[in-house]
Amino acid sequence: MTSTEAIASKGPQVDALIVGAGHNGLVCACYLAAAGLRVRMLEKRGVVGGAAVTEEFFPGFRNSTASYTVSLLNPKVIRDLRLAERGLVIVERPFSNFVPLEDGRFLQFGGDADATHREVAKFSARDAQALGSYFARLDRLADQLKKWVLRAPPNLRGPWVVQGLRDAGAAASLLRGFGALPTEGKRDLIDVFTKSAGHWLDATFESEPLKAVLGWDSVVGNHASPYAAGSAYGLLHHGFGEVNGKPGQWGHAIGGMGRITELMADEARARGVQIDVGHGVERVLVEHGAAVGVLSERGEEIRARCVVSNVHPQLLYRRLIEASALPAGFLGAIDRYRSGSGSLRINVALSELPDFACAPGTKAMPHHASGIVFGPSLDYMDRAWHDAEALGHSSRPIVEMMIPSVVDDSLAPKGAHVASLFCQHFKPTADWDRLKDSAVQAVFDVVQAHCPNFRASLLGHRALTPLDLEREFGLVGGDIFHGRLSLDQLFSLRPVLGHARYRGPLRGLYHCGAGAHPGGGVTGAVGHNAAVEINRDLA
After folding, report:
1. Taking CA 415 as the corner, what is the angle to CA 104 and CA 256, rounded to the nearest 5 degrees?
2. pLDDT value at position 4?
3. What's CA 488's distance to the chain center, in Å?
4. Distance between CA atoms of residues 481 and 339, nearest Å
5. Rounded to 10 degrees, what is the CA torsion of 434, 402, 90, 260?
6. Residue 8 has pLDDT above 60, yes or no
7. pLDDT tens digits, residue range 81-94?
8. pTM > 0.70
């Protein structure tokens, strides 16, 4: 008997084999282990966390490598995984965003309602009065959709549209929630999924800086103009979060985003989960229409009662499973699944804080601890997208700067700082081996125009293009959400119609990554929901 035959004859070695130790995979593992299942995880990179990691990028300087800020991490996940007990500390921003303008003015937005009202009134008294009703409209929608963040959506397939009784119940609950909205709320819900962010904002406000700071959410990870149909959903998706029990807040995790996933891994190991880093998967083993384990890149065959994928759906189905094992119609749907968020991520090491022309000073001030948006208008954002489509990247990109070392001195040497530059628009399909340097310099030009000391203080940097994000983290097309958050790829349609309940087209194959409902962001919600369904099947 060969060694492979000997392994196979023993049956499953674990109950659940999770491919990828990103944050959702770690969350899923914790819940499965808590239910008494034997869980093993394989992670291709040398550290846990996927795109939520903290790494040294320049000697003595550490920062969150890809994902970089906290808001969407679900409070139930934080509580159930005992993250705060294990030492997770999240520091709230003093206010949400700071928008520097070329004319020497600036907008400080978010946080204290009265302060925000005064700031917006500097540009438009009418807009300041309209803010309350605008947020009330979004909050009304968010309250309905939040009810589904930790619930599986109905599967839409079968002779009665839904697949079974559970799906019928879920669909009925969804319709009741929709029906409970007032007529204006129903119109808003339809509009937010179909119309552009620009349409929404232009119809409500007149001030360009205000529309820009709100419209930023519609282009984050979305390679599209703020005037693209469906982009209004971005205004809502980023409004689901909270920090320290405060809805709508954003914050810094002390130790970076990697601190979150390190603590998740500690909890998983404490529950008996085996996590192997530097151990990638060559292919998923399929027998008689069922996923029965994996063959690792080290040649190890690991048998499991189920295989749980925390990787991008196209990576799973195009590279890890033989095409002949999958239904032809399903493969076609996966090929049509749209990915490519057009983001460029740069970490920079600085000898001093940026000195803003509109708010001078290199000593830490509240705006240094906020999300600094270089993008003064929706028109600017629209032109950035058109530039990228024509040239590969915008000559004047949209940039959000975060300076976490203002509140976390563990990230940089004393007196120095690190900053995250999260930048849009960079065409996912461009030749990034050729365009990378010019793209980085275009970003630096934007920051330098507002912070005259930026280039002089720049000690080093590390940039990740869409292609780098795909090569390093498996984000196909550099898509930070594992697939676009568009109407045809949300809720019961994510990743594809008929597979919304975290189950793939093979028995024993599950999805626990951001390519499933409720989508991207560091939420932990997908891992939670997938574990509920897996436990239901394996119990």
Report:
1. 85
2. 45
3. 18
4. 8
5. 10
6. no
7. 999 999 999 999 99
8. yes
